Amino acid sequence: MITYFFIFLAVLAIASGLAMVISKNTVNSALFLVLNMVSLSGLYLLLQAQFMAVIQVLVYAGAIMVLFLFVIMLLNVDDEQSLFNKFRIKYFVAFLFGVGVFTQLIYSIGSFSNTLPVVSEKMAQVGTVEAVGDVLFTKYLLPFELTAILLTAAVVGALIVAQHKIKPAREE
Amino acid sequence: MLGIDWYLALSAILFCIGMIGVLIRKNAIVIFMCVELMLNAVNLSLISFSSHYGNIDGQILVFFALAVAAAEAVVGLAIIIAIFRNNLSVDISRVNLLRW
Fold first, then answer.
1. Nearest residue on chain A to B53, judged by CA atoms?
2. Phi, psi of A31 (to 5 degrees)
3. Looking at this predicted complex, what is its ipTM?
4. Predicted pLDDT of residue B92
5. Which residues contact A68 (CB under 8 A, 6 or more apart)?
6. Is the pLDDT of residue A83 over 80?
7. Cα(A131)–Cα(B97) distance, rounded to whole angstroms?
8. Is residue A84 part of a domain?
């Protein structure tokens, strides 16, 4: 049963990732990315990481993608018309790079194939919110608070960058 | 129960899709979304390692990666808006501010 769920979610994730890269309309590719993130959160549930699955939907599919969609709607980006219309050397080189990296990754996974463990028995207790919070607020307390400072700095920096008045270059 | 290899292979496939997207697209927002896809692929491999070894540290690492990704998205989108105000375009082949 878990195998069937995994195959379904994996096919969904790969198909929505490909559709995100290929689709011409920017809004469509953002929505495909939301589908990809939801299917990844299902995979986290299969791995018994419940807290991370919830956070994935809340933060990624909820907050970050809403930000992306807001920017797309605000800028009113026109579609790329000449995507895959004609053969370009750029696409070929990019595809070659992708296949090369994929082959390396698969080779390194395959060479460790028999030494890797199966799902640990104690994972049912490990993945809950309680366990994550327990480690987060004791062992990783300083990085957690640094995260707060990082987020504050990012928001202030974004405000300064986006509010700065620049004269458009075309008016001159 | 499935072995860890399947999750790692799926993570590798998603990472390569994101990488090809970064290389071939010209729209800056889509390039950002492809970077998010690559971050998600790495998160999947971290969570599968964490789950298969029964160790919580990988999930904590995913938590921090998520916070950093949120900060990166905020700053990156602000930069895209600033570039759009200057150039009236988000096509990265038309941005030549730093071109030598």
1. A120
2. -70, -35
3. 0.90
4. 79
5. A30, A33, B29, B32, B33, B73, B77
6. no
7. 48
8. yes
**Chain CA centroid to CA B12, Å:** 13
Phi, psi of A121 (to 5 degrees): -70, -30
Best A8, A18, A102, A132 residue to mutate vs chain B (most B CBs within 10 Å) = A102
- pTM of the complete model: 0.87
Q: Quick count: other Cβ atoms within 10 Å of Cβ A160?
A: 11
| Same domain membership, residue A48 and residue A116 | yes
Q: Do B2 and A151 touch (CB under 8 A)?
A: no
Per 3-state DSSP, chain B is made up of helix, strand and coil in percentages (nearest 5) of 80, 0, 20
The residue of B1, B6, B17, B46 whose CB has the most chain A CBs within 10 angstroms, and thus the best one to mutate to test that interface, is: B17
What is the domain range of residue A147? 128-165
Q: Does B17 touch chain A (CB under 8 A)?
A: yes
Q: How many domains does chain A have?
A: 2
Q: Please tell me which of the candidates B47, B68, B72 has its beta carbon nearest to residue A47.
A: B47
Residue A172 reports pLDDT greater than 50:
no
Residue B6 near chain A (CB below 8 Å):
yes
The pLDDT of A39-58, averaged and rounded, is 91
Of A40, A98, A136, the CB nearest to B60: A136
Q: Are residues A16 and A83 in the same domain?
A: yes
Same structural domain for residues A20 and A57?
yes
